[in-house]
Write a structure and sequence with these properties.
This protein has one domain. By secondary structure, the chain is mainly α. The protein has five helices and no strands.
Length: about 140
């Protein structure tokens, strides 16, 4: 049962990060000009639906972990360590992206909406992606 819940959690996190990224990247492409407005609407809608459905599914899975024994086994020491490392990694990724944007600002004129939306994608995707990558690496070493 625990392995099944872990697989479901992993799949829903992948769907959430992909859906959110597609949704926000679609908005970013639409900000670049009206030439890309047609297909970006579909990309945004698809990403929004995938992200929303994955969040609903994660909420359903959280009800399956109401049992304290199940919750404790899902949030073991390895999971806590991976969560810590993923936030640590994403802190540096976010700082690097911000430094890159600041360094590029004298050479590339960017609207504030594009900068903020780019940072939003990195802020959401970096910790989830890092957690999933570390979790996959830890699972393959067992």
């Amino acid at each position: 049962m625990i392995d099944k819940l872990i697989r479901k959690r992993t799949n829903m996190l992948w769907l959430a990060v992909v859906g959110f990224s597609l949704w926000q990247i679609g908005i970013l492409f639409a900000d670049f000009g009206p030439a890309s407005a047609g297909w970006t609407n579909y990309l945004q809608a698809f990403g929004m639906v995938v992200f929303g459905l994955s969040l609903l599914r994660l909420a359903q899975l959280s009800h399956a972990t109401q049992d304290p024994n199940v919750a404790e086994r899902l949030n073991d020491e390895l999971t806590q360590l991976l969560r810590y490392r993923s936030f640590y990694f994403s802190y540096w990724v976010i700082g690097g992206v911000m430094a890159l944007l600041v360094a590029a600002s004298p050479f590339v004129q960017m609207r504030p909406e594009i900068i903020v939306r780019s940072l939003l994608v990195v802020v959401v995707a970096a910790p989830i992606g890092a957690f999933l990558w570390l979790d996959h690496r830890a699972g393959s070493q067992e």
